[in-house]
Amino acid sequence: MLGHGGDIAHINATGKTMPNRSTFFGVSRRKWLTGLLIATPFVVALLATLWFTNPQWQPRGRTSVGTLITPQVLLPQRMHQPQRRWQVMTVIRGACDDACKERVWIMRNAYWALGKEARRGSDSLLRIGAEPDSGLLSSFPELQLYSMSEKELAALIATNSQLPQPRHHEVWLVDPLGYIILRYSPEQTGNNLLTDWRKLLRVSQVG
Q1: For residue 26, what are the domain limits?
Q2: What are the tens digits of pLDDT across the range 57-112?
Q3: What would the 3-class secondary structure string for the chain be?
């Protein structure tokens, strides 16, 4: 029997018309499940980031080595990974000299040290104020190259006082949704990043 809106309804033993239980608020169960499957990875990534960046939610003694960016800062869409992977983003304010190349190499080795989990990460280079040298790709295949104007950087910083002007060779850890969640000074090592990243990957199945 057709019910309201063309849905199939059922008649119980008392002769009363019962609604179709395969729908919920007029939406089929299959559509609800499809929507949940699509949304779940993004919700998990958000919860993992919130858990990690709110020390009061964590067991005592668990802290990050990098500086937390709270609230997180969203990078422009062009800097998001299409594969939804974590990014180790080295920031430079000039040409990528030998010291810069060494920094990129150290950070690349940091995520390679994750072993089988390394497939969940990638590395990138952000040059402020100019386009990065594409010749770097000969030394670092698959390195993602980005640029950002000083004006665009100023607008990004204006959204969060926790993100100061980046220093040359600073590193940002970016989550699969494109948010900067941790920053590392030029003096910090790849091991510092690795310590935090392992914690994040344990609580997030995204990326």
Answers
A1: 4-41
A2: 444 444 678 998 888 889 999 998 777 889 999 999 999 999 999 999 999 998 88
A3: CECHHHCECEECCCCCEECCCCEECCEEHHHHHHHHHHHHHHHHHHHHHHHHCCHHHCCCCCCCCCEEEEEEEECCHHHCCCCCCEEEEEEECCCCCHHHHHHHHHHHHHHHCCHHHHHHEEEEEEEECCCCCCCHHHHCCCCEEEEECHHHHHHHHHCCCCCCCCCCCEEEEECCCCEEEEEECCCCCHHHHHHHHHHHHHHCCCC
pLDDT of residue 64: 73
Whether the predicted pLDDT of 28 surpasses 80: no
The reply to whether 19 and 96 lie within a common domain is no
* CB burial of residue 107 (10 Å; 0-12, 13-18, 19+): buried
Could you read off the pLDDT of 162-179 as tens digits, one per residue?
Answer: 788 999 999 999 999 999
The enclosing domain of 173 has a CATH number of: 3.40.30.10
Q: Are 182 and 87 in contact (CB under 8 A)?
A: no
Beta carbons of 89 and 125 less than 8 angstroms apart: yes
Q: Does residue 115 share a domain with residue 31?
A: no
